[in-house]
């Protein structure tokens, strides 16, 4: 029995290490009395865009609002269809619905858990206007193929990058491959605010301008009381921007640490036949390891065994979106999504954070090996 508590995420350690800087930045923003769209927000937008090599960043209130704003800015709305994955967090689809568009599911690739490009074309109708891949768990979706399909059918591509900060596909950061990328800075994310926050990344000035307006009541650029569209109140708070500004310079190092933790897990677990590891990285193709997700035999019993040994774990996601009560009216047949069905029954995420020690990784792996009697 392992006595040491090893959590799934560990926000405390990171927060403690930056506490003085975070406190100072928050106070500075508070006392600046520029609480919305002030200098800290502008600085964060410039720095995040620069880090990703993108032309524009528009900060907003959450990852969910980033998806919604990006879709609306790309011209998607009522009567349109958006193809996406059913194996994701519910905000992916609720954000599509909030634009007035309908989501249409395509099944996932069983190895990457991401939208399978081979299943997209059969879902395209006259109403399809966009594809919305999610880089789930931080592993990039197959963007080269998705972009080919989008170009062939004249569709927009909006990337859900809530879990993929600094992941790369063919040497390009996720968020910079499609028409726009939507990021979440929910506290547990690889770059986490101390509350809700998000951002849209794009190289398209037209989309960036529309995003700026949409987050700000639909305001016409440079005009105080003129609105060229209907928007909403979806701005990032200046204090969150200040806190994110403190954390951003550390993101690259934190990502490297996550990759080092992943490498240790791979080394320790590679010979356990009941455990399938996440897809490997390759040249130009790197992942952010938001979570470290295994595919395992006897999943629920292993989860209970880890819990009994004080090791945090979670299932992302136990219920495919088409089975959620809020979508019961859609009467979607689960048999049409066999890879999502299997994944929901077999995936298990184990502790992953930049500060996770090699010693603790070894403990987690020993407990897993112990479960399988090895
Ligand atoms: C895949 C995915 N999409 C969207 C979101 C929504 O982000 P937020 O919680 O910041 O609204 C999340 C975050 O929880 C997510 O994991």
Structure description:
The structure is a single chain. This protein is α/β, with parallel strands linked by helices. The chain folds into 2 domains: 12-249, Aspartate Aminotransferase, domain 2; 250-371, Aspartate Aminotransferase, domain 1. It has helices spanning 11-17, 19-32, 39-52, 63-73, 91-98, 143-153, 205-214, 238-247, 251-269, 299-308, 338-346, 358-371; strands at 56-60, 81-84, 102-105, 128-132, 156-160, 168-169, 172-173, 180-184, 198-202, 275-276, 292-296, 347-350. The strands form 3 sheets. A 7-stranded mixed beta sheet has the order 1-9-8-5-4-2-3, sandwiched between helices. Strands 10-11-12 form a 3-stranded antiparallel beta sheet. A two-stranded antiparallel sheet has the order 6-7. Strand 6 and strand 7 form a beta hairpin. Helix 3 (39-52) packs across helix 8 (238-247), helix 4 crosses helix 7 and helix 9 (251-269) packs parallel to helix 12. The protein is globular.
First-residue to last-residue Cα separation: 15 Å
The CATH homologous superfamily name of the largest domain equals: Type I PLP-dependent aspartate aminotransferase-like (Major domain)
Strands in their spatial order, largest beta sheet = 1-9-8-5-4-2-3
Q: β content, as a range?
A: 5-15%
CATH-defined fold name of the largest domain:
Aspartate Aminotransferase, domain 2
Ions, cofactors and other bound molecules: pyridoxal-5'-phosphate
CATH architecture of the largest domain: 3-Layer(aba) Sandwich
What is the ordering of alpha helices and beta strands? HHHEHEHEEHEEEEEHHHEEHHEH
Poorly predicted parts: none
